[in-house]
Design goal:
Distance between the termini: 132 Å
Number of strands: 10
Shape: elongated
Number of helices: 19
Helix content: 40-55%
Largest sheet: 8 strands, mixed
Structural class: alpha/beta
Strand content: 5-15%
């Protein structure tokens, strides 16, 4: 049509044509690259005055006696390959290009073989399990979730209560502990979820004193009438320390494994502090700094790690530096399955606040010092009013033949410490033993942070033998009846004493 211009539309190339053109361009680039390498070699190495030129030039002795006969022989045998090369290309250049391409191909194949040899681990998502805990109602109306193992309350010779560590739950307890061993020693084992962990309700104003009170209410609610043992492992030890401080009259003793203390404790010497901090990674030091100064910033890191909805490695989540034995243990499929289930229970509420509170509790002011647990005579406070109280108590002690008052924890404290532990270094246990010289320290050569506590039946037997002696099994019917009779006789003696006091008091007689 007149007055109209035709615009030529470029033809669309097929995929085959595109691949052909790409291969041609790649070949040309490779040839040019080979020529460039040749020019570099000629200009920098193969000069008339260079060592190579003098030794391997046409007129050199080596080339005349060795090089020329060999080259003629090889050239004669490989000459027929030149028929497959392009006619317009120099055979030397073509063979150089082929050599370079072959080396690159072999390198790529080797890298792919290595990647295929190490399969990429599948990312496992966190699963929310149905509720399974037993619950008690605390005096403030909160629910506390707990788990009971071992013998029943009536048949128990010993009762153990275990507060769990950071990023754990009531399901942990003593990992791998067999029910037959609990039966053999007559042990009743109680574990519970800290406030906001697992199925326990959060505490609005949580501190270490409230943690000790929760432990006391649990013992009373489930029928632990006698004194019980508290077991502290790693970061769970701070709740065991709190129990020793605030409810010492209810405790028979304490068993600590790699006990964690406040790394900012002012009582630590420079050597103890240096021996502790130098074992930790930079990220872990940074997390402790945030927990102490800016705890709200921990929310960002927790949401990107264990609260992301996906499973990961414990050493990366908690920035732990592990030894060979500890690393081999956590990579074991049995332990990995156990730990993943424990983590799923720990984070089931999806609330970051309890974890931030737990991290801040560890590095903040505890409200007491480890020195307060040391057994010592009660000191007289200063002031006229305190002096009068002291004199009255002294006169009463003379009249009633009362014993001197002591402060601290009267029962036994056992500390187990792996000498290859980098999570809770041995310097921490040395600090505890210096402050509490009455504690029994069991140093474990070649043991790490997990190896002695996790899935070690013989280790568990050694621990219970150290604490309780020869296993005697659960209480039988006769022993239960004797215990009830002794309890009734004690109550009767107390009531008789109270009646004697009333009869000896003139005010009570007049009433």
């Amino acid at each position: 049509m007149a007055g109209t211009s035709r615009v030529r539309v470029p033809e669309q190339l097929s995929l085959r044509d595109k691949i052909t053109e790409f291969m041609k361009a790649a070949a040309e680039i490779t040839v040019a690259f080979g020529k460039g390498c040749r020019d570099i070699v000629q200009q920098s190495v193969v000069k008339e005055d260079s060592y190579i030129a003098r030794k391997f030039s046409k007129g050199s002795y080596l080339l005349r006696r060795i090089g020329k006969p060999c080259c003629d022989c090889v050239r004669h045998k490989l000459r027929f390959f030149n028929h497959f090369l392009p006619e317009d290309k120099d055979p030397l250049h073509s063979w150089l290009v082929i050599l370079v391409v072959t080396l690159i191909a072999f390198a790529v194949l080797k890298i792919n073989a290595r990647q295929n040899a190490s399969p990429v681990p599948l990312i496992k998502k966190v699963f929310l399990h149905p509720p399974s805990a037993s619950l008690i109602v605390l005096p403030d109306g909160r629910y506390l979730a707990y788990k009971e193992q071992g013998v029943s309350a009536e048949r128990a010779r010993f009762s153990l209560i275990v507060p769990h560590t950071f990023l754990s739950s009531r399901l942990a307890g003593i990992p791998g502990l067999k029910a037959s061993l609990l039966e053999e020693f007559g042990i009743r084992l109680l574990t519970y979820d800290l406030p906001g962990f697992g199925e326990s309700d959060p505490h609005p104003n949580r501190n270490l004193k409230s943690s000790a009170m929760d432990m006391l209410h649990l013992a009373n609610a489930v029928g632990v009438n006698d004194k019980f043992w508290v077991v502290g492992y790693s970061s769970g030890s701070l709740h065991a320390w709190a129990a020793l401080r605030y409810i010492p009259d209810r405790l028979a003793g304490a068993a600590m494994f790699a006990p964690m203390v406040n790394p900012y404790d002012t009582m630590m010497t420079k050597e103890e502090r240096r021996g502790t901090w130098e074992k930790w990674t930079r990220k872990r030091k940074f997390m402790y700094f945030l927990a102490r100064r800016f705890p709200s910033f921990l929310t960002y890191f927790y949401h990107r790690s264990f609260l992301s909805g996906k499973h990961g490695q414990i050493d990366k989540w908690l920035s732990l530096s592990l030894g060979k034995r500890d690393r081999a243990l956590i990579e074991d499929p049995i332990n990995e399955e156990f730990w993943q289930r424990d983590v799923e229970e720990s984070i089931r509420q999806g609330n970051v606040k309890p974890f931030v509170e737990e991290a801040a509790l560890q590095v903040s002011n505890w409200g007491f010092s480890l020195a307060d647990l040391k057994l010592q005579k009660k000191r007289r406070e200063k002031g006229m009013l305190n002096w009068l109280k002291y004199m009255i108590n002294w006169l009463e002690s003379l009249l009633n033949e009362a014993k001197e008052e002591y402060t601290g924890f009267l029962g036994p404290i056992h500390l187990w410490q792996g000498m290859d532990d980098s999570v809770v270094p041995p310097s921490m246990t040395d600090f505890v033993h210096r402050v509490l010289p009455g504690a029994a320290v069991h140093k474990l050569p070649y043991e790490g942070h997990f190896t002695y506590v996790y899935f070690c039946h013989e280790c568990h037997r050694q621990i219970f033998t150290t604490l309780f002696g020869t296993p005697q099994g659960p209480l039988n019917t006769i022993e239960i009846d004797q215990a009830l009779v002794e309890g009734d006789s004690k109550e009767q003696e107390e009531t008789e004493k109270q009646e004697e006091v009333k009869l000896g008091d003139p005010a009570m007689k007049s009433k």
